[in-house]
Amino acid sequence: MKRRSFLQKSAMASTSILVPAFLKAYQPENLFNSRSGKILVIVQLSGGNDGLNTVIPYRNDIYYQQRPTLAVQKSEVLQVSDQLGLNPVLSPLQSLYDDGLLSIVNNVGYPNPDRSHFRSMDIWHTASESNEYLSTGWLGRYLDSSCQGCEAAHHALEVDDELSLALKGQQKKGFAMSNPQQLKRQTNNPLLKHLAAQDHHDHEENVAYLYKIMADTYSSADYLSEKAKTYSSKMTYPPSAFGKRLKQVAELISADTDTRIYYVSLSGFDTHVNQKSQQERLLKQYAEGMSAFVKDLKQNRLLDDTLIMTFSEFGRRVKQNASRGTDHGTANNLFLIGGKLKRPGFFNEGPNLSTLDKGDLIYKVDFRDIYATILDKWLEGNSKQILNKSFRGLNLV
Amino acid sequence: MEKIKHLYGRAGFGLSVGEWEQKRNLSVSQAVNELFSKALATPPLSPPATANVEGFLQMSEMDKAETRKKERRLVVLQSAAWIKRMSDASESPLLERMTLFWHGHFACQSKTSVMASNQLNTIRKHALGNFRELVLAIAKDPSMIRFLNNQQNRKQKPNENFARELMELFTIGRGNYTEKDIKEAARAFTGWSSTARGEYIFRARVHDYGTKTFFGQSGRFDGTDIIDMILEKKQTAEFITRKIYRYFVNEQINEAHVQQLANSFYSSNYDIGKLMRQIFLSDWFYEASNRGSKIKSPVDLMAGMIKNLQIEFENELALVFLQKSLGQSLFNPPNVAGWPGSRSWVDNSTLMIRLNLPAFLLNSKEVNFKLKEEFEAKRQNKITRRLNANLDLTPIIAQVQGKDIEAQVKYLSDYLLPNSGKIPMPLFKRITRGKSAEDTTKLVLLGIMSLPEYQMC
Fold it and tell me: Which of residues 85-104 of A touch B (CB under 8 A)?
């Protein structure tokens, strides 16, 4: 097909919901516009990723003293700055770093850190104080407060069978789907299909609520499985479940799906025993996945509209344990990836290893300042209302 | 008949079809009496075999991890056994229901199976007894002591965690005490500790015997005094009554009813059984606005389905898988505030599992759902996705045998749905056309249990 007729064809199809976003960008009227909405992608590293073996303070003697067998040797470190370097398995991220597409925020945490996975993950999901118990998540509350008009149930989409607390609001909730085929299978039940199409307004309030979720699920299932067919990525992603999920997200973003928040997890970072092989296997998956994802979006001119935040519920103890692993710790680094970063590279200084709290790093950046920045600057929300407290935010995006 | 269904839905976990036939014509007071006498006649659970946690602290990391894993497995097996108990016709549904309520109220994650089982027995013992006794027993419960770090609460270095939750979540609620009250209460609970074997111990050496000032009064208070002083405040009776009302009656509070209940709860000196009897015997409990207004918790749903379909799982882990995928794992509430309940049970994913569950069970299909991976290194997901459930539908078939489809729908929706629901009759007729009598009943049953109304009680 000649380029001209290709453009004509795609212009003709512009009324269809099925035109991929990058094609829309080629249409004359859209040539200079980026898409209307910004996209946020959250990547959760579950289990407590060891930040000190991710971003390595390779000039710090304490690091090598405390981790006699676990430290990454200076010669192997990717020395991207004069103090801090990356674990060699993160080499796919180095070009992102060099191109200004990666910001690393060090020492991120919260006051009175909790070392239980579940509790600390809850704190990150709900953005609560460490002695406060909330049953809604920060992105769920964003949907409640700033997204009253969003009709689509998949406005915030978790690529998983289970919906995380982060995406559960009081009135609104995100949508969980590990893949469109699976969702289609779930909605195959003919009886339910029939019920979903019925009017449900005259039911008791809670029953009507169930009918509404059911009906929304059916319409999102139809919409998402159509969208998923629109654009098929040619990029090579790691063959793991995580790689497949990232690919799914890239395809949905490229198909101009009306989802603005995506949530993906990678598990297994709880490395008490024989950490090295385990953590490096996962970090490699992460880096290869992110690198493919970024290339994919960049190629479709969507990277400027996308912000990716990677976090873990806590970092790990500075000193290695007796099983060549590390135990639960506190503050950690957090990655932001995207085309519109204000301060790419290292956002702040690396951790101070000489002043510790019971063997653990002391946080300098409250994660809720990062949330506030994302909510206010990226999602055009009201962080004060969503976080129930005023955070100044940071110069990140 | 509607009243009996409502009572057993809320005070128990629904009825098997046999029980339904037996009880549907009882009067409310007959049924309430039966529920209470059965509860009071039920003996405590026998404790599980002691697991090997001796010498835990001396173990290598690897052995520790192995022991933790073993214990976790024993705890999840207990959770499956508990759900079976809830649905077991020979057990007391009221006692299990009250125990489940308090289990969510005194939310606690148990590390070992012995501690989990001891705590459960403690709650069962007082579930319909005296609230003061219950709070005091929980304050001395090793699992709770560990969960809320009271073994680290020492005179030299008080830990406020237990004292804070005691007031905020367990008794009086926010807004009725100061930060100073928490600090002073924490001092009173110093030394309330547990041994390595998981038994309660009072460590006098770390107890603060000094004078504390709590709620404006000064004295050499200990934990028992603090609990008494909290319960002396009527706000505690109101706080607990309100929570019970939300759970057993309606999330929408009727203030007049709550005040009336709280008054009698307070003047009865916190007699839980009396309070529950008052609720179940009041006319307003049975009003239409209260019936079928509650979204079943995952555990309610599972226990109820087992009763309805007389399910035997070939592998108990099926019940563990279901708890996890539906979002309520017993002995493992999300945090000390317990399960938020109500609409938070339901999102697109959990609702689709709930609605498809009857089909998975009746057609023994594999559940279309994968659990999130654990924090630890990836390992094979041992929990079965195929539920391998053996159902006994003969009691249901016996009841509807020979009836035409409309009569079957009528009978089964009366039995299974709180407010007999809007049944899409033409659809039912279409899907059963030309089917054998047994398949017709199966399809009607499946249809009714797949309605969102079945999620309500």
Answer: none
CA distance B50 to A42: 43
Q: In terms of domains, do B207 and B60 share one?
A: yes
Check whether residue B448 and residue B364 sit in a common domain.
yes
Query: B132 lies in a domain?
Result: yes
B322 occurs within a structural domain:
yes
Q: Which chain B residue's Cα is nearest to A158?
A: B349
Contacts of A124 in chain B (CB under 8 A): none
Q: Do A48 and B447 touch (CB under 8 A)?
A: no
Q: How many helices (H) and strands (E) does chain A have?
A: 13, 11
**A382, A376 Cβ separation under 8 angstroms:** yes
Angle, alpha carbons A143-A210-B319 (nearest 5°): 105
Judge if ipTM > 0.90.
yes
Strand partners, A40: A261, A307
Q: Is B22 helix (H, G, I), strand (E, B) or coil?
A: helix
Q: Is A160 on the interface with B (CB under 8 A)?
A: yes
CATH 3.40.720 fits A35-387, yes or no: yes
Segment 274-313 of chain B within 8 Å of chain A by CB: 292-295
Q: pTM of the prediction?
A: 0.89
Q: Are residues B99 and B196 in the same domain?
A: yes
- Judge contact between A175 and A153, C-beta under 8 A: yes
Rg of chain A, C-alpha, whole Å: 22
Cβ–Cβ below 8 Å for B352 and A48:
no
Q: Are residues B221 and B339 in the same domain?
A: no
The residue type found at B401 is Q
Tell me the HSE value of B243 on the side-chain side, using a 13 A CA sphere: 23
Contact across the interface for B334 and A189, Cβ inside 8 Å: no
Residue type, A86: L
Give, for all 457 residues of chain B, the pLDDT tens digit: 899 999 999 999 999 999 999 999 999 999 999 999 999 999 999 877 666 667 787 888 788 888 888 888 899 999 999 999 999 999 999 999 999 999 999 999 988 999 999 999 999 999 999 999 999 999 999 999 999 999 999 999 999 999 999 999 999 999 999 999 999 999 999 999 999 888 999 999 999 999 999 999 999 999 999 999 999 999 999 999 999 999 999 999 999 999 999 999 999 999 999 999 999 999 999 999 999 999 999 999 999 999 999 999 988 889 999 999 999 999 999 889 999 999 999 999 999 999 999 988 888 666 666 777 766 655 445 555 677 889 999 999 999 999 999 999 999 999 999 986 678 888 889 888 999 998 999 999 999 999 999 999 9
Residue A302's SS3 state is: coil
Helix axes B255-267, B234-248, angle to 10 degrees: 130
Cβ neighbours of residue B385 closer than 8 Å, sequence gap 6 or more: B321, B366, B367, B369, B370
Q: Does residue B17 sit in the same domain as residue B148?
A: yes
DSSP 3-state of B311: strand
Q: Are B63 and B191 within one domain?
A: yes
- Kindly determine whether residue A270 and residue B456, on different chains, have CB atoms separated by under 8 Å: no
**Is B315 found in the same domain as B215?**
no
The DSSP line for B237-261 is HHHHHHHHHHHHT-SS--HHHHHHH
Identify whether B88 is part of a domain.
yes
**B263 occurs within a structural domain:** no
Q: How far is B125 from chain A (nearest CA, A)?
A: 28
Domain that holds residue B315: 298-455
Chain B: nearest CA to A337, how far in angstroms? 24
How many domains does the structure of chain B reveal? 2
Residues B210 and B333 in one domain: no
Distance from CA of A268 to the nearest CA of B (A): 4
The DSSP call for residue B310 is T
Shortest CA distance from B423: residue in chain A: A195
For every residue of A19-53, which 3-state class applies, written as one string? CCHHHHHHCHHHCCCCCCCCEEEEEEEECCCCHHH
